[in-house]
Automatic annotation (TrEMBL):
It is found in: Cytoplasm. This is tRNA threonylcarbamoyladenosine biosynthesis protein TsaE. Belongs to the TsaE family. One of its GO terms (biological process) is tRNA threonylcarbamoyladenosine modification. Keywords: ATP-binding, Cytoplasm, Magnesium, Metal-binding, Nucleotide-binding, Transferase, tRNA processing. The lineage of its organism: Bacteria, Pseudomonadati, Pseudomonadota, Alphaproteobacteria, Sphingomonadales. Signal peptide: none annotated. NCBIfam families: T6A_YjeE.
Length: 147
């Protein structure tokens, strides 16, 4: 899927927001500046967040909860995680009972950490646009757009 600019990336995130439920994991892969945070900002804005969501690079986990958003969400950036064993200290998986997770740099959690996640991969193109590819497991097939 082609995404012409940041606005298109945020708009696609906004399209995902109504489909998101507690227990969902959406992984956001791609290089620096590929659109991961822009997509997450679109999701969070559509869930009701009034200010622009900061990148959670330094905090690692940025929680959002009602009434700030309609659904509890953890926006997670694992860029600074060096060892998958560090994941246990973050308590992320326990949050799945009542929250959705938006996870940037999911590969840092170790292979197969979230096997049922909607796995989105953003690719920057030479013209400044983005290309999005994905893997949608069975739980997402009816919810995620196929084109």
């Amino acid at each position: 899927m082609a995404l012409a600019d940041v606005a298109a990336t945020e708009a696609l995130g906004a399209r995902l927001a109504p489909m998101l439920r507690a227990g969902d994991v959406v992984t956001l892969s791609g290089g620096l500046g590929a659109g991961k945070t822009s997509f997450a900002r679109g999701v969070l804005a559509a869930l009701g967040l009034e200010e622009e969501a900061p990148s959670p690079t330094f905090a690692i986990v940025q929680p959002y909860a009602p009434p700030e958003v309609r659904l509890p969400v953890l926006h997670i950036d694992l860029y600074r995680i060096d060892d998958p064993r560090e994941m246990d200290e973050l308590g992320i998986d326990e949050a799945l009972a009542d929250s959705a997770l938006l996870v940037e740099w999911p590969e840092r959690a170790g292979a197969g950490h979230w096997p049922d996640a909607l796995a989105l991969t953003f690719h920057a193109t030479p013209d400044g646009a983005r290309r999005l590819t994905w893997t949608a497991p069975a739980a997402w097939e009816a919810r995620w757009p196929s084109r």
